Backbone:
């Protein structure tokens, strides 16, 4: 089985370097209908230095390598019907089961396990294949209806995104091209030139640890979600209001984004109030504010404050989150602050960094990311992260980022 994983990795590597063209490898257009098929390869190698805790991390250091190949299809039939497919094959090799997993795969999205399979499951190797997106859209004069597996994102902010309820990225994730899809139905109604009403229904599923993604193919009504969202533009600010149910909570919230002082500052804000259906659980609020300044065409800086009402007031309470099998929190603390910077070093090279502070336990996390264009539709990225904080004591998490390893990774990506 290890040999099979190696063969798949090498094949992906060869395909990557054969991908020199930016054009799709298959295109068809007869004037009224069209089809476009592309491929995408992503190869990553990483080294990690773990916290001094052998119960959580068996090794002092770890290495990790993975390759993911995607088949991307988009088709259109007349002016009314369009279709999308995103199928993937992922191969991962970790030096140990305790190796820290970066946010690089489609795992973690709550969706039916019927459209994916784990074909390789060894001590250090795993292989996963499935469908990340499979949907169709019906378009009318003022209405679009999308059905099937699709990415859903109601967030306005970039780093912390409390209004992204379905498979959100973490604040330190820079490459966000492929958001995992969920099984949903979405209706977009254009009420005016700058006003839109959205209705969304997302299927939820029962947990099942024996499947490839941790969920069964059985629909769970208490895990399913339904939301409505209204967006409009007033005085150069985009304003939204949303409400409905997300899994087992009633949600009401909104967002705003725009520029002030003649464009000198950009502001993005979003948040919501969540009331659990279980009366024994407390309601909570989530809110984020981002203030961004573009100094010139090359340099942008962003200051962020995030209030995470579902988080804990002290590190002593973190274990409660780990014990709660229904919790889907990306963050443990109550309050976070961050500074993000993006700099275009050259037309081919961009540098980015983010520094995050968990004000609850005073742990810190700094992540650096650079991407360089090697050719048309081919790029190389380098990333590394430096966590600071109290290391875990056995299974006791004394600080959030103190439980993270040091990380450095090199990645090649290409379309063909």
Residues:
């Amino acid at each position: 089985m290890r040999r099979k994983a190696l063969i798949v990795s090498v094949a992906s590597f060869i395909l990557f370097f054969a991908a020199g063209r930016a054009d799709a490898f298959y295109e068809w257009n007869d004037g009224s209908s069209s089809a476009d098929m592309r491929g995408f390869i992503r190869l990553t190698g990483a080294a990690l230095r773990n916290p001094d805790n052998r119960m959580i991390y068996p090794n002092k250091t770890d290495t990790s390598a993975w390759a993911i190949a995607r088949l991307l299809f988009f088709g259109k039939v007349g002016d009314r019907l369009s279709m999308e497919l995103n199928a993937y094959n992922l191969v991962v090799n970790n030096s140990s089961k305790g190796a820290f997993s970066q946010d690089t795969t489609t795992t973690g999205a709550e969706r039916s396990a019927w459209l994916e399979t784990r074909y390789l499951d060894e001590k250090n190797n795993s292989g996963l294949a499935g469908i990340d997106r499979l949907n169709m859209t019906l378009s009318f004069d003022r209405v679009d209806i999308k059905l099937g597996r699709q990415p859903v994102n109601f967030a306005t902010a970039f780093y912390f995104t409390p209004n992204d309820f379905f498979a959100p990225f973490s604040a330190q994730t820079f490459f966000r091209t492929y958001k995992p899809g969920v099984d949903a139905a979405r209706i977009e109604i254009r009420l005016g030139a700058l006003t839109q009403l959205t209705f969304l229904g997302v299927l939820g599923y029962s947990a099942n640890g024996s499947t490839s993604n941790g969920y069964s193919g059985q629909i769970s009504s208490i895990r399913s979600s339904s939301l409505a969202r209204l967006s409009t533009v007033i005085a150069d600010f985009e304003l939204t209001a949303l409400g409905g149910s997300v899994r087992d909570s009633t949600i009401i919230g909104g967002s705003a984004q725009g520029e002030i002082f003649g464009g000198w500052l950009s502001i993005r804000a979003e948040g919501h109030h969540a009331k659990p259906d279980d009366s024994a659980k407390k309601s909570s609020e989530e809110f984020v504010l981002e203030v961004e300044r573009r100094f010139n065409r090359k340099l942008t800086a962003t200051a962020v404050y995030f209030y995470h009402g579902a988080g804990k007031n002290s590190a002593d309470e973190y274990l409660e989150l780990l014990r709660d099998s229904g919790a889907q929190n990306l963050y443990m603390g109550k309050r976070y602050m961050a500074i993000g910077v993006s700099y275009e070093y050259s037309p081919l090279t961009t540098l980015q960094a983010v520094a995050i502070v968990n004000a609850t336990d005073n742990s810190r996390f700094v992540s650096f990311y650079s991407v360089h264009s090697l050719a048309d539709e081919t790029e190389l990225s380098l990333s590394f992260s430096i966590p600071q904080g109290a290391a875990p004591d056995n299974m006791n998490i004394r600080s959030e980022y103190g439980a993270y390893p040091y990380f450095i990774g090199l990645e090649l990506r290409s379309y063909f």
